[in-house]
Design a protein that fits this description.
Tetracycline Repressor, domain 2; Tet_transcr_reg_TetR-rel_C_sf; 10 helices; Arc Repressor Mutant, subunit A; mainly alpha
């Protein structure tokens, strides 16, 4: 059996420890999220995170080593804890539920700045970028069955790329978050969902791959 020290030095997110190690990881990642939301990536300091989490600095430095590795592990946890998809029985209802979930996350006073910070991290570090890609792949995988079921019900044309449908829902919301100061309200979420539905029904996402 691997020693506790070996677990501590494993790559972030590669181990699913229990007991004290799990509690320490949870506290540190929560503190890291708070720090990112308040100060952004430039203000993320491992010593400050250790203080916030009330754990030893050595533990944080040994396990994560640098702020980007901490961001990467935070994304792993965020993907694991994301809410499951909603099934309403119609594509329009499902995609509106998806869009409203994304909107609530991005409009949240803590989560919105947090996502901006992790996106910034992904632009300058390959590990953070890989973690961000895994996070969104996990979310797309969770919601893609909504579009596949719509194809089976005859709501969408055969050959529709279900994953592209889901990506089309959240893309306008992220664009609005990152490029404007306009509020992310429920109306914006519904418009994004409705636009994705209209495009999908028109065959915009039909590919030869399916």
């Amino acid at each position: 059996m691997a020693s506790e020290a070996a677990k501590e030095t494993a790559n972030p997110g590669s181990v699913r420890p229990g007991g004290r190690t799990a509690r320490v990881r949870s506290a540190v990642l929560r503190a890291a999220g708070d720090a990112l939301a308040q100060h952004g990536l430039a203000g993320l300091d491992l010593a400050d995170v250790a203080r916030r989490a009330e754990v030893g600095r050595t533990t944080v430095y040994r396990r994560w080593g640098n702020p980007v590795a901490l961001v990467a592990d935070l994304l792993v946890e965020m993907a694991e804890q994301s809410l499951p998809r909603t099934e309403t029985g119609t594509l329009a209802g499902d995609l509106r539920a998806n869009a409203r979930l994304v909107r609530r996350t991005l409009a949240d006073p803590r989560q919105g700045p947090l996502f901006k910070a992790v996106i910034a991290a992904a632009t300058c570090d390959s590990r953070a970028a890989a973690a961000l890609h895994r996070f969104y792949e996990t979310r797309v995988d969770e919601w893609a069955p909504c579009a596949r079921q719509a194809v089976e019900r005859g709501e969408l044309p055969p050959g529709t790329d279900a994953r592209e449908v889901i990506r089309a829902v959240s893309a306008p919301l992220y664009y609005r978050l990152l490029t404007t100061a306009e509020p992310l309200d429920e109306a914006a979420a519904d418009r994004a969902a409705d636009a994705a539905v209209a495009a999908a029904r028109a065959g915009a996402f039909v590919t030869t791959a399916e």
